[in-house]
């Protein structure tokens, strides 16, 4: 589905990532871990064309997307649910969904909107509210619902659990499982290491822009090097993995 | 006395409608690109010249044929100047999109001079008489003398503004334009063709401004290559007054500025005991601009606290 080989990327002249090889197969949940500032968000940005790529190749469904424009990559079926949700605050809930659907073939807006509402019924209730009035959890649901408007084959989620209550996190993660079961591949960036590895099939851990460890989720959870990744990054909260 | 006041109200409504139409172009472009499009006043001027060309080409007779020709000319003005607006964005602004904010502004100042000069070379610098788009029938209304030209201008401008409001509020492209103006990166991440949204803005804004030029020339009966300078600055003031980036603000600002100016000018000889005559009318708009920038740079409908509304103040 998605395949990254020898990727080096960064912002402007600043190189953040180097030597990244990563694979996401159809219907698989792949987790990217790492301390703050390790380069997880940058990795997702590189895939969706939002930062500068200095070396390497990214292919999606067999097509080289390395030099493609972000909107073309999204249109090809790769949705990116960005860090911090990035909801359009001045638009209504429904208008946020419209933005992600404009100019696409495939299912009609109404059909996809109903699918999103079925997944997150609260969005139906609040469809005409300004998005700025949603709670954090509701905004995260909207962000995921919006990412699904493109009928993606792969969804990249950047810390969807950030700032949410435990009950909501469970709900969001259940949705992620359901999406994968429905055949959508997931590339998930998470700080919540334990939960993420329970959910995922395979994991990669980044340290200072390089891959440090990778492996099947269970194996990775038991790998002592994983804790080192977090210690090296100076992050205290996640060592309990 | 009431006759004079009603007369002035109509004058202010007429001018205000024209200011509002031009102010919309400034505000829409600023909303999406955070750019003050200084060439906008000259696109307003270009609108009048394109309409003149239309009149010469079609040479309409009277009655229904004339009304049809006027409608055709209005559509042609919108399309031609809208197209020029898109071309300007593609060639003069898009290559500078990721550079310093000052660069595209300088580019727009240069274009403004180039466009004025080009029209001056082809059409001459002298004022040219302009045939009104609407029939000029004087009417007596409660002691005020107004003309059907004024009514035509106000009605046409209001219809266009309501149309714009509906387009922005209801249409899918309107939603996309608002999304792009709030956060261009995220819109692009979601698959929006940002260039297309920006082109839409650069088509509609100059198109409306150009129709404003036709209305203006219809009202005064003359046009010249430099007519966009002062009117452009005044409409820009109206946009700032309303809160740049706000569509409602541009319309309200246009009318407010016109009322301030028309009534201020009428009072000027009385207030200064004849020392300043009505020829000093332009001081009102610029006084207003200074006051707004000093005391409320975010304007009436701008968000006082938002980062972008203060950008103006920081950059200049
Ligand atoms: N737009 C940018 N321009 C320049 N440098 C950036 C930019 N965004 C991030 N960086 C730098 O890139 C490095 C990696 O940041 P990134 O956001 O990818 O980390 P992360 O793993 O997602 O961290 P977090 O867990 O805090 O989200 C950091 O050193 C950061 O300062
Ligand atoms: Mg991050």
From TrEMBL, chain A:
GO molecular-function terms, A-Z: ATP binding; ATP hydrolysis activity; branched-chain amino acid transmembrane transporter activity
Keywords recorded for this protein, A-Z: Amino-acid transport, ATP-binding, Nucleotide-binding, Transport
GO terms for biological process, alphabetical: L-amino acid transport
Transmembrane domains' residue ranges: none
Keyword presence, Transport: yes
UniProt key word ATP-binding: yes
CDD domains reported for this sequence: ABC_TM1139_LivF_branched
Domain of life: Bacteria
Span of domain ABC transporter: 2-233
Family: Belongs to the ABC transporter superfamily.
Protein name: High-affinity branched-chain amino acid transport ATP-binding protein LivF
Organism from which the protein derives: Methylobrevis pamukkalensis
Source lineage: Bacteria, Pseudomonadati, Pseudomonadota, Alphaproteobacteria, Hyphomicrobiales
From TrEMBL, chain B:
UniProt keyword Nucleotidyltransferase present: no
Subcellular location: Cell membrane
Transmembrane segments: 12-36, 43-59, 65-88, 109-129, 149-168, 197-220, 283-302
Example of a GO biological process term: D-alanine transmembrane transport
Superkingdom of origin: Bacteria
Similarity section: Belongs to the binding-protein-dependent transport system permease family. LivHM subfamily.
GO MF terms, alphabetically ordered: L-isoleucine transmembrane transporter activity; L-leucine transmembrane transporter activity; L-phenylalanine transmembrane transporter activity; L-valine transmembrane transporter activity
CDD domains: TM_PBP1_LivH_like (cd06582)
Protein's name according to its UniProt entry: High-affinity branched-chain amino acid transport system permease protein LivH
Entry keyword set: Amino-acid transport, Cell inner membrane, Cell membrane, Membrane, Transmembrane, Transmembrane helix, Transport
Membrane topology qualifier: Multi-pass membrane protein
GO CC annotation terms, alphabetical: plasma membrane
PANTHER family: BRANCHED-CHAIN AMINO ACID TRANSPORT SYSTEM PERMEASE PROTEIN LIVH (PTHR11795), HIGH-AFFINITY BRANCHED-CHAIN AMINO ACID TRANSPORT SYSTEM PERMEASE PROTEIN LIVH (PTHR11795:SF371)
InterPro entries: ABC_transp_permease, BCAA_transport_permease
Keyword Transmembrane (UniProt): yes
